[in-house]
Amino acid sequence: MLVDQFGRKHTSVRVSVTDRCNLRCTYCMPADTPDYAERREILTFEEITRVVRIAAGLGVDDVRLTGGEPLVRSQLHKLVASIGEISGIKKVSLTTNGILLADQLPDLLSAGLKSVNISLDALDESAFTQITRRPGLKRVLDVIAVCQEQGIKVKINAIAMRDFTEHQIVAFGEFARRTGIPVRFIEFMPLDSDGNWVESKVLSGQQILKMFSQQVRPVVPKNQPNASPATDYEFDDGVGTVGIIASVTEPFCSTCNRFRLTADGQLRNCLFGGDSGDVRQLLRGGSSDETIAQLLHDAVLSKHRGHGTDDLSFDRPSRPMYSIGG
Ligand code: SAM
Ligand code: SF4
After folding, report:
1. Hey, what long-range contacts does 291-298 have (CB within 8 A, 24 or more apart)?
2. Atom of ligand 2 nearest to the CA of 321
3. Which residue has a Cα nearest atom 16 of ligand 1?
4. Which residues of 120-157 are buried (b: 16+ CB within 10 A; e: fewer)?
5. Distance of CA 314 to CAs 98, 142, 326, Å?
6. Which residue among 25, 197, 319 is best mutated to probe the pocket of ligand 2, counting the most ligand atoms within 8 A of its Cβ?
């Protein structure tokens, strides 16, 4: 098992398949195309599958594919299928902005994808374009509707930024009630490329819950698994679920069970830490599975107790979100 020095078992890995993206969300990417990793630096599907197989041998059973935008990586469904075949892997899921999902959905479903998290921060086109610096709201709403029609488990992730996405919160609460799709709000974290994060721009989970109570209906907590970063609530009439991922104001480090593999093959034991192991070098240097397993162990063992964003000495991570894999 991958157990850290605080006894946390790591059973979940987030795999970034690319640092490229077709949107330019202001809280994540710069307006201009950044210096992406070179193609030769990016792990192949075979390399990713090997790392996941080794991780599965150490108790990892849950894999989320992310990016950048994972669907800009061609033939992603092939990776979904090969990871899904690994003994011990119970769940392969995807976090996407949804822009390219409609075209790829049939292949992804045939490959065994069961659930998808779609990031959507606004329900009106002008706010969507302001936030993502690209058009595309209709495409995203259309594919959400298709997922629902086909019975695919879908959740919405929306960023919570004061004065920016704040005016979308109530509309999302009503959307959750109308569609039955859970909407989770992620507090804005200091991982934007532009370096504009300041604490005053974080719209806290508590403030969001208050907005619901005052402007939609009161919410009550739902039962949920311990390791989930989200706290889910339902409206008090039982209609509609909303969740809060309060990474900044109420960190969930004590129950964290995940680590990350970046697109260029670096392990990250925490979103806010540095790179914690160079898997690519081992993969390409002919290392054995045992050596790679040891690197996974070491990466998890070096994990800190908490992410420390509330510490005055906290340094922003050198990589922004799109290059780590959110
Ligand atoms: N492109 C895909 C998408 O947007 O779903 C996957 C990658 S994206 C980096 C994953 C998640 O990270 C998205 O839900 C996005 O809202 C979130 N994210 C990006 N930058 C963030 C930040 N600075 N603070 C909090 N969440 C952030
Ligand atoms: Fe792209 Fe996702 Fe970052 Fe938006 S949040 S810029 S969609 S990687």
Report:
1. 292/50, 292/51, 292/54, 293/54, 293/57, 293/58, 295/267, 296/2, 296/54, 296/55, 296/58, 296/259, 296/267, 297/2, 297/58
2. 3
3. 159
4. bbbbeeebbeebbeeebbebbbebbeebeeeebebbbb
5. 33, 41, 20
6. 25
Residue 2 lies in a domain: no
What's the average model confidence in pLDDT over 48-74?
98
Query: Is 208 part of a structural domain of the chain?
Result: yes
Distance 58 CA to ligand 2 centre (A): 30
Taking the centre of ligand 2 as the mean of its atom positions, its distance from the CA of residue 270, in whole angstroms, is: 19
pLDDT, tens digit (0-9, with 9 covering 90-100), for 191-200: 999 988 999 9
Span of 128-137, 243-252, 313-322 with lowest mean pLDDT: 313-322
Q: What is the dihedral of CA 100, 105, 110, 113, to 10 degrees?
A: 80
Whether 179 maps to a domain, the answer reads yes
Nearest-CA residue for atom 8 of ligand 1: 326
Task: List the CATH number of the domain containing 79.
Answer: 3.20.20.70
For a ligand 1 pocket test, name from 15, 101, 172, 186 the mutation site with the most ligand atoms within 8 angstroms of its C-beta. Answer: 186
CA distance 173 to 242: 7
Local confidence band at 131 (pLDDT 50, 70, 90 cut-offs): very high
Average pLDDT rounded to a whole number, residues 214-223:
93
Count of domains for the chain: 1
In 3D space, the residue among 140, 127, 66, 125 whose CA is nearest the CA of residue 96 turns out to be: 66
Rounded average pLDDT over 35-49: 97
Cα of 149 vs centre of ligand 1, distance in Å, is 26
> What is the span of the domain harbouring residue 254?
12-324
Report yes or no on 100 lying in a domain: yes
